[in-house]
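Throughout our pipeline, every protein is held as a single compact record rather than as scattered files. The remainder of this section carries one protein's record, kept here as part of the documentation.

===
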Amino acid sequence: MSTSFEKYQKRRLRYSYVSVVISISLVLFLIGVLGLLVLNTKKVSNYFKESAAITLYLKNEVSRDKILNLQVSIDEKAFTKSTKFISKEDAAEIYKKENGEDFMDFLGYNPLENSIDIYVKADFVSPEKMQEIEGIYKKNQFVSSVSYDKPLIDLLTKNVKRISLFILVFCGLATLVVVVLINSSIRLSVYSKRFTIKTMQMVGASKRFIRKPFIWNSVKLGIIGAIFAIFQLAILLYYMNKTFPEFGMVDDRIEMASLFGIIFGMGILITWISTFLATQRFLNLRTDELYY
C-alpha cells in the first residue's frame, strides 16, 4: 500500500516539475520574443527609411560620362547608402509596364529624363536632412529638378518614434507580468511542500539548510526551462530570417548571443529569488497558519 502511495507521490511530483518547466519556458520564450522585437525595431524602421529615395532628374544634354562622374561623387557622400541610374529609355519601359500603355506611340518622342535615385542612410532620413540634400543638388549644373516623397518622410519620422516608445512600454509591462507568472508557478511548487519545510524547521534545521535544496531544485528547473525557451526562440528566429532576410535578424551574432544569455540568466535569477521568498514565507508562518 505504502509503495503504491510513494509511486503516486513521485508521479505527482514529476508532473509538478513538468508544469513548472513548461511555465518557465513559455514565459521566458515570451521575454525572448519581446527582446527580438526591441532589437529589430530599429532594423525594420531603418529598412523602410532606406527604401525612400531622392531622385535627381538630369538635363538631356548631360553626357553619360558626366552622369557617371556625378554618380560616383554621390556614392562617396556620407549620407549615401546606394545609388541607381535610370536611363530615360528604362523609365519609359517602367511606365509602360506599370500603366499598360506606350505614350511614345502618340507623342512620337520620349519626354522623360535620365535620373539617379539616391537611397539615403537611415540616420539621414528626416525632413531637415533630406531638405539639406535636396538643396545641395538643386544647385548642381547637371540637375534639372529634385524629387522625393516629403509626406512619407514626415510620416516615417513621426511614427518610428511613437512605435519605439510603445514597444518599450509594452515590453516593460510584459516583463513584469512574466516575472509574476514564474513567481506564481514557483510558489505553488513550494506550497505543496510547506509541511515538509515546517517539519524540518521543528527538528532544528536552520533556515539556510532548509532553503538550499529548494533553491537548487528550482534553479535546475529554471535552467531547463531557459534551454527550452532558447531552443524555441532559435527556431522562430530561423524561420523569421528565412521569411524576411532583408531585415538581417541574425547578422549580429553578438547581439543574439547576448539575448540568449539574458534569457538563460533570467531563468536562474527569477527562480532563485522566487524560491527564496516563497520558502522564507513558509518558514516564518506558525504551524496552524499552514492550513490557510
